[in-house]
Amino acid sequence: MLKKIFAGCTLLFSCITVAHAAAFYLGPTIFLKANTSNSNSIREASPRFSLGYGGNTTQYYYFGGEIFVDPFSAVVSNHNKTGPTMRDTHSFGISIIPGVRLNESSMVYVRIGGIDSHFTYNNNNDVGLQLGLGLSTTVSMNWDVRGEYNYVTYRSMTDIGAPRSDWYGIGAVYRFE
Question: Which pLDDT value is given to residue 144?
Answer without folding.
Answer: 96
